[in-house]
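DM from R.C. (forwarded with permission)

"hey, sorry to bug you on a friday — could you get me a structure for this? deadline for the figure draft is monday and I only need the backbone to look sensible"
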Amino acid sequence: MRSVQALGAVVLSLLTSCGLADAAEKQGGILRMYHRDSPGSASIHEEATYSVNIPFMPVFNNLVIYKQDVAQNSMDSIVPELAESWAWSSDNKTLSFRLRQGVKWHDGVPFTSADVKCTFDMLMGKSPQKFRKNPRRSWYDQVVDVTTSGDFEVAFNLRRPQPALLALLASGYTPVYPCHVSPADMRTHPIGTGPFEFVEFKANESIKLTRNPDYWKKGLPHLDGIEFTIIPNRSTAILAFVAGQFDMTFPTEVTIPLLRDVKAQAPNAVCVVAPTNVSTNIIVNSTSPPFDNADIRRALALALDRQAFISILFEGEADIGGTMLPPPGGIWGMPKEMLQTIPGYGPDIDANREQARKLMRAAGYGPDKHLAVKVSTRNIPVYREPAVILVDQLKSIYVDGELDVVETANWFSKVARKDYALGLNLTGNAVDDPDQSFYENYSCKSERNYTNYCNPGIEKLFDRQSEETDIAKRKQLVFEIDKKLQEDVARPIIFYSREGSCWQPYVKGVTIMVNSSYNGYRYEDLWLDK
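My reply, with the result:
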């Protein structure tokens, strides 16, 4: 097993193991992967899970994208895609793009600026056609409108400066959709401009893509296609990988214990462990009694033994942080010394839990009167396993939890409509940038604000940090906001996982992103040396 403790080690490991210095790439072959579960649909814009990005990001292109062979996403690693270039106006309130010409959708229709406008009008809720779900609408709250000038120029006009808009547009969650295909059709048969074309999606069975022979990047992709076999049981999937049935595991889904099994049974397999920018957290419906009592919510946070989660699930290889991914993988995470000043983050677990029990007793609970509650979670291992530990830890503060598992197709709709009381959730941050995390997860009107947390004063700070162009000043504001969110028990963060990805030694050109696993899956540069 290859354990990565620092960003430099991640990059070195990837450059060495991925064969970037190997001979010329070979054309052909089908990349075989297993998939962890059955996505709710094929529409990236309507879903809120990595399970959709992995198989369907290769169908699309963005205006801009994070460079696919640079492991840590940053503003410096953003490169053009459907846009050839971009520029900010002198007042930093207009972001203009010159678009690539000669690009066609998979059905042969030419790509134009109208497609860009249609996509973002739908995301902003301004078009006649509507998305059924729109989990990232808050990303574009500062966009007044999107305007076109001819077929190959488009501009985003903002209410105020927002430098991070470019980072949001580079996310794996920001593909451009075709104007001539309805949102309903995109759920079942997506049409893109990307390196691979959609073939079929059989729910609970498989997803198949084929090479786009007319891809605008000449010579790419190298693969003839990609086939995903849906196997929800991780142990079964790993055994199949070890037996050679798959070329690659589902990315960043192999646990530390399972990695040991892989390396023991398939010693030639290439395995990399990296931060994922996915936090495991508690979501509490703050409008559902008794959790409308802030002291009960605080008690839940104080009951957490974060290190126990990490020891049990990751053999010590995970990270404790706040809303933003902790360093070195993350750019915006609070320093450790600041984190430990927040109630519940200190090392004295017994003292934290005694304080929690006092809050519970004051709320009317105690040894003779426990709080019975269903703990909702998604029915895949990365959710279920920590949820079991959470239920056990809450017993220490008079809370009797009963696990309520929910299938992926229903999970995000359930929590978005606040149809739960207490839950164990994973929040995948599509971009390592505060604008994405703060507005999407904590702004009062966001569809992904699952806990009903609403603090207008904090939202004003969101805007202040968003406008700030001085990185050092912005970081201090971000630290202040993050600390306040944890103190408010807005969405108690338990840990950030480090997960493994493995592939057979003949798979070349793989890069695993270390601060946003959502942004690195075009597969256009992968090739099979066999």
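R.C.: lifesaver. The radius of gyration is 23 Å.
me: no worries. Confidence is low (pLDDT under 50) at residues 1-22.
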